[in-house]
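As agreed, record copied across for absentees:
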Amino acid sequence: MQLNRYIDHTILKPTTTLEDIKKLCMEAVEYDFAAVCVPPPFVKLAKSFVGSTHTKTATVIGFPFGYSAIEAKVAESVLAIIDEADELDMVANILAIRNGDWAYLEKEIATIMPIIRNKQRVIKVIIESGILLEEEIIRCCELYARHGVDFVKTSTGYAEKGASVEAVQLMRKHLPANIQIKASGGIRTFAFAEELVNAGATRIGASASVELMQQALQ
């Protein structure tokens, strides 16, 4: 398994510095990671560092709690695209999920998708699976499958529970084959990353990416 091509090398701390972004991007290019995932203000900088390599530039929308207004997520998405982000990891409105407001969630994704598709970008919808009931995860899979998102993503890494093999297996079972799964949140060992890939994840979001690669080579 070429783990490097599964990895979104990630830094999203509010204390992130310019040097952190440079280091992240240089590591991503060195290891040929799938993408770097950076805070919105650093998209342009990250894009300049990864240049014309195979590594894509990703950023987050509505991060980390997802309860930004739809209009705010639209604005964030447009700005990310202007700054040349290739991939957008959008946090679904977790409040709406937990309160069963599926009409709101339908409106949210229906508003965002034309922007993404018009500019031929990739969207990953984060559902925070670690704090959802099984039936809520299934309902999310059904909803986002209908709208043809590129990925459903397990976690932000900011909730009390991140990725799990069980959540990835459940998502894979209830998503069509063309919709991918990104596992993120608490992935610090190669063994766990491998388990998640075997369960159906096609991307791994991690800040410990270099350590994962070093473990893979042991």
